[in-house]
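Hello,

Our lab assistant flagged a job as stuck in the queue for most of the afternoon. It eventually completed. Since we weren't sure the result was trustworthy after the delay, we are filing this so someone can double-check. Below is the sequence as submitted and the structure that was eventually returned. Let us know if re-running is recommended.
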Amino acid sequence: MEGGVPKADVSAFRECLSLSWKNPYVLRLAFSAGIGGFLFGYDTGVISGALLYIRDDFKVVDRKTWLQEAIVSTALAGAIIGAAVGGWINDRFGRKKAIILADTLFFIGSVVMAAAINPAILIVGRVFVGLGVGMASMASPLYISEASPTRVRGALVSLNGFLITGGQFLSYVINLAFTSAPGTWRWMLGVAAVPALTQIMLMVLLPESPRWLFRKGKEEEAKEILRKIYPPQDVEHEINALKESVEMEVNEASDSDKVNMMKLLKTRTVRRGLYAGVGLQIFQQFVGINTVMYYSPTIVQLAGFASNKVALLLSLVTAGLNAFGSILSIYFIDKTGRKKLLLFSLSGVVVSLVVLTVVFHETTTHSPLVSTIETSHFNNTCPDYSTALNHGEWNCMKCLKASPECGFCASRANKLLPGACLISNDNTEYQCHKEERLWYTRGCPSQYGWLALIGLALYIIFFSPGMGTVPWVVNSEIYPLRYRGICGGIASTANWVSNLIVAQSFLSLTQAIGTSSTFMIFIFITIAAIIFVIIFVPETKGLPIEEVENMLERRSLNFKFWQNSSDSSEVPKQKHQSV
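-- returned structure --
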């Protein structure tokens, strides 16, 4: 497509592994900066489990869906601000200082959340955490990308993706570990202060990004770092390429401090980079991944598994699959390329969402009936059921949707047989469990529960290696050096705004149109994402960062995405339509 691109294959993955003994300095930079990704992942994972216990401690949260969404979404609002301001901070003060500031905000937020005495203070802590996560979400991959050798850049930025999913996995482990501890959710949220403090100490000892230093005129300091990153035979070529790139930018724009949105959009290479980068970040959220991660315990209960602990345990499995998918990405991203990996990932997501849509439709339409005899066995019938005239038409799902204050106590003999529709409170739950029955408030007993889990697992296995990591990789390498921080900030902001919209609306959507219809919406969005990737996303596999700008300058549309770039470059330019 772009011509003259050196082929990167499985040897790039082996080269990445060999860094552990050939050049551990590069791995130390990548891992230390990648802790920012770990914090990002931990926060998205931990809140889903903590929310189950926050609802138990603060009854007002349990009764009001909007308050549950607010606890999740205020962190996302903070992340939007953090990502937007973080772009400017990255360009003005450097990647290193941006990461340290992000850690400090995350540390403060974790302490405030752990000590919260009411939902309002908890929400304040979530805002601080969001500011830190938003800033780190673009600073960490940017730092790794600029401090990585070209051949393994994709794998090392994918390492940041692995640490995101690793953070999610660890959050579920910690959620399970503290299920029986006093102050359950406080421990879950407060533990996050430890990795934030760890990264602050590590980053203080690490250098600034060599490319940022070059841009700021600190050439000798940058050269010293580059000599530690690249082998002796490559370092001079890299220094010369970086020097030429910076000189070209300075010559092109003497008013470099007056960057604005119109200037960005008028610059062809930046505009084309933003099409791809921002679009990928938006679609990453709108195909539903963080809905799955934030609310996976709730989704598991919707699938018919009643226990909080069982929901957390099954969510741990999904988080483990997510981490495994990130490992696959490290292996394949420099072998198959970014674009093919995205298309494979999105195609699998469509199949998985179809499975989830069908399963949740069956779960909703075939929930157990409500028995008048079973209900009268208890002394606290749901008021809506008591006043209803058509008891014979009531089932578990209708009971739960009638009011947030109603719950379903399954039959003792078989959870799929008619059960009782009761008032939802601690006393009722105790009575139900005392008779060895299962108590449901978020979903209903179902014979299709395991199929829902298989659908979730397939979704994550397909999503993680491609759409989970590639958008961050592409955004860390696709923009010209001069605009890299601000453009990365714009793309991250788009990601968090999309994240906020999806998280804020998911539970409300499931209540309004049902879980199956909500997943069906994600299917159509994912199909749109496939079309977008084919048309707008270029292949950056094997390209030195300094050459990406040249590629964007001459890039044209190419629908034959399966062809190698060297093949595609032979197609006459007049057969392509300019982007």
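-- support follow-up --
The delay was a queue issue, not a problem with the job. The result is valid. The first strand starts at residue 406 and ends at 409. Residues 295 and 467 are 19 Å apart (CA to CA).
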